[in-house]
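Data availability (excerpt). The following record was deposited with the supplementary files.
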Amino acid sequence: MPLLFAPDQDADNPGNIQVASGIRPTFRGYGSFQTMLEYGIAASGWGALGTTPNNMWGHHWSTNGRVIAGSSTRLYELSLTSTGTFTVTDVSKGGSAYTAPSYSSGTDDEQDPSYWCFASVGDTVFASNKFTSRIQTQTAKAGIFADVAGSPACSSLVSFKNFLIAINCGDYGSVTGMKDMVAWSGLGNTATWVPDQATQAGYQRLLDIPGRCVVGKVLGEQVIIYKQNCIYAMRYEGPSLLFSFQLLDQNIGINAAYNVPPPLVDIGNAHIFVGAEDI
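Predicted structure:
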């Protein structure tokens, strides 16, 4: 069966991929990033900024498609020019640097990840890392990022069934964040994070198997959440349970480091990831 990335078409069409990471909008549809090295040379604009991205996000929404890249202390937007080259604009909150990741000696992979994570909800892009206290939001192309008030910092973001889901959470409001915590916004309201049955915002810790939650990805009617050594399925149940969590495997997880994004690829009807011993 041929596969086609067509997020504007019916999700039930055979072979239609609705969500994909590592792509960018082009004049003829979509293309992959060529290499991180290529975007680091002066011709693309990175050289002039003197920084290197640690993660990128391709956002598609009509004419407002854009690529967002995060470095250790900045968020940038890549724009394609008429000559086929990229210009880079600093879209960091207030035009200022974010807090740089820092670690004590003896750092292991259970530490707070250093990279940015991203998600799109409609024409809005969200970004977060564990060293920036609030999720960041960009509401339009070329817009400057701003805080989502009362939201948790996190190391993975997922858009799912009109919720924004944060994984591996920092403190927010009266909630003490934990590395094994999954939190979600209000239904249809990414600005609401206070746990409340009325808005359906809430959180849950995944405690069956120790360790930090590494990343989450949508797969069909569920979000698959990966730890280093186990896998959970997160399913929406509606009021008043909201979400259920099922431990799918307690021996397999994702082989993730704290300083690089998780080795996980979403191909639409399956996830491909690097485990401790195999792919």
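Summary of structural features: Residues 73 and 98 are 5 Å apart (CA to CA).
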